[in-house]
Amino acid sequence: MADLLALSTKVIDSGVADGPVNRTTNEFSEVADGLGIVESFSHSVVWDSGEGLVAFDTSHVNTGEAVVSAVRGWRDVAFHSVVYTHGHVDHVGGSGFFAAHNERAGAPSPAVTGHENVQRRFDRYRDTNAWNLLINARQFGGVRDDLGMVNDLRPAAGGKRLRDFLDPTVLGVTDVIGEHAVRTIGGTTLEFHHGRGETDDHLWTWFPDKKWVMTGDFVIWNFPNAGNPQKVQRWPIEWARALRAIAARGPELLLPAHGLPIAGRDRIARVLDEIATALEDLVRDVLEMMNAGATLDEIVHTVRVPTDTLAKPYLRPLYDEPEFVVRGVWRQFGGWWDGAASRLKPARDAELGAELARLSGGADVLVRRARDLAVAGDLRLACHLADFAGWAAPDDPDVHRVRSEVYELRRKNESSLMAKGIFKGASRESDRIARDTWSA
Fold first, then answer.
1. For the segment 156-168, what is each residue's pLDDT rounded down to a tens digit?
2. Contact in structure between 42 and 258 (CB atoms under 8 Å)
């Protein structure tokens, strides 16, 4: 059992993370009397209420069984309830194992608490299942070849989902929350608060008597995931407001769904303030430029988060990054058009690539120049030219071999998982074209 609070205290107070802070050990660690956390793909925070265990999130379908096993090593009793901090599959996918544990114990299925938008999210996932499989494979494919952490909600024979989880609105024991609700479990008061941030269905839970807060993904020990380029709208300014609301209650123990738990009122207040300030300043700078008539291109290449802010152990851009959040702010307040008239109703990429290839002397000329730029360190411009060449010569193995090299170099020079995933996807795409063309 790790001393997670000592570890987080050392990291925050020193400002140095010399080891992983988002750990996925699937091990249980007690952090207070009757309270613990299983560190996993998404953590499960578990509280012994005296009426049974209350779990805040259930991790992914691929890790849920290991999470339940770790909890049983601490308290082998039934789950009173499960609270979904939000409906992302890495937080709800393991819930079937929690229900199975109760069934083995002869207990009813745990009650499920979630925001009212969770069910809408599940419905959307079912409508766009194939799309979600594609984008999640790409998102996580830049740092690993194991793409198992993707959602699959397709119906199996008889209508049962292949990867089942507990819906918050189809069970007889549900607790669907709107903006705010207060519940008493085991004589302890819990306050559930809705806030928009990474999602529109997020709940954070406050224990007023114990000064505990379960923040879900409002704290992730990375720069906030408020700009994911492949997902629906995120809410950075609302995220900051939720952090301010949490801080106003003076928590003394903070339990996130990713990263280390944090102890100490002043320490927690400082972390929450610095995350909120980073988001507030970024949104302010984007809106100021929008109000001045700037285009998205100008804003993306101007607005920056200070380097010393991004160096903090809980604000490093290792998952999402500020440049993507800038685009999210533009989309939230300004729509999808980026301000360049030609891109309102553009030509096909293939037509643009072919015309540029004709002007420059061929797709091979474009892609060679792309490689030269990449080697010289101008990876942004190199990728444009590599794409033009690939669109102009969609079946040319030599062109796509170089395009693959350019994007692989780009991937290696990025810090965020999301950028790495998309650039690795482009590299794989061209590598596959080159390989299949030669084999044919």
1. 333 333 346 776 6
2. yes
